[in-house]
Amino acid sequence: MRIGGPVALDLLLLGVGEAWLFGLGFVRSPRQALRWAGLAFIVGWCALGSVMVYALVLGFSVGISGSFALAAALVAAGLMLGRAVPAAADRAERPERSLIKIVSVGAAACVVGYLALLGLHAALTASPTGWDAWAFWLPRAKAIYFFHGLQPHLRGGFASFAHPEYPPLIPAFDATVFNFAGGAAVLALPFQDWLLAAAFVAAAAVVLRQRVRAAVLWPSLCLLVLTPQFGASIGEGHADPQLARLVALAAVCGGVWVLERDGRLLALSGILLVGAVLTKREGLLLGLLLAVALTVAARVEGGRGWWRAVVLVPVLLAAALPWQLWLRFEHVTSVPDYSFRTLLHPGFLAQRLGRLRIALEHLPQIALSFDHWILVVPLAFFLALLAFRTRPSLAVFLLGVILLGYVGLACVYWIGTFPVTWYLKTSASRVVGSLVVLAGALTPLVAAELLRPPSDAG
User: What is the pLDDT of residue 98?
Assistant: First the structure.
């Protein structure tokens, strides 16, 4: 494996992301570029990965030269956008008392230290361990790499494995890692996943820091990062952890947008949710749910521009359309685990009420399990309930997304084709993660608004 190859790819993603953050006005100096590097890496991953997906759908093979060409086009687009968009205000950090500063610095050190240990493990000893990773995620990445494209009708091609209806962003990115590494270097993938996880933490911190003091921000993020499931999910090879991080970061940008109405933040939410849509089938459902929740929360908060969140709905539907058209055009047949059309058949649903009861009982047990997520969800719910008086918009946003997402997951298990106990055993801990990580990422924002003096609100 060429170690320098994946490093070049990571720098390419960072460059694309920095260009787009420049275009949106967040990055206009080297200091800002360094501070926003985490978000830039994820934005670059979403932007370049999405374009690669559409190139594959059109039948193009995206090798190293193609990756550089697409990245150059995206960088040029970001720089051109920056000529029309003014720079965002660079907020000066408020001084904090020495004791409070010790708390924030200590919590930040815990986060950085633990992430460093996870990165060391991912680089030296980790390998993809998830069953789904070896059943279809990695084989599809290898199919793209060896066959130079999707090639659905070749034996061993993209559609030869389970769940061919899943969007291909993760396999496309893994295949790109293989291209830059000079071979199907599966052991290089856990470190790439760790980079995305570390970038998620840095990105959430820089967006939240606009309204959240360090003494609130870092202990809250520390609670999320130190949960057993957060570290255990890194490098498994599943798409669910990356989907959870994208949706949670989009929710953070959206939550700050609700309070400040800076359209750049809503644009960031859109970019991240497009990445989520192309990451996994559930990404579209979670993205639409988030768009509706943002609209309602912005309306509750009052002020102008609340309707702009509605624009996310057609954007996400348009992002998902090319992949659906490709599946139909290429006659890729699949038997999904569930179909929402069955929710229109009362008789079918009545026969399965026992499945719904089991799902409604067990999903909260996983989210509330100390062995999985410690106290992330109880703390988020407690703070959201307290915020109903002072910041009802944030309370509605957080509780609405969590509760509706929980009901949606329960409905999926209600109408699923496999035994509900099988779902709970094999996938429940992963799919619940999207809601838990979202709750943990929004907790600092809700806590900060509760502690904000009335004269300082707005």
Answer: 73
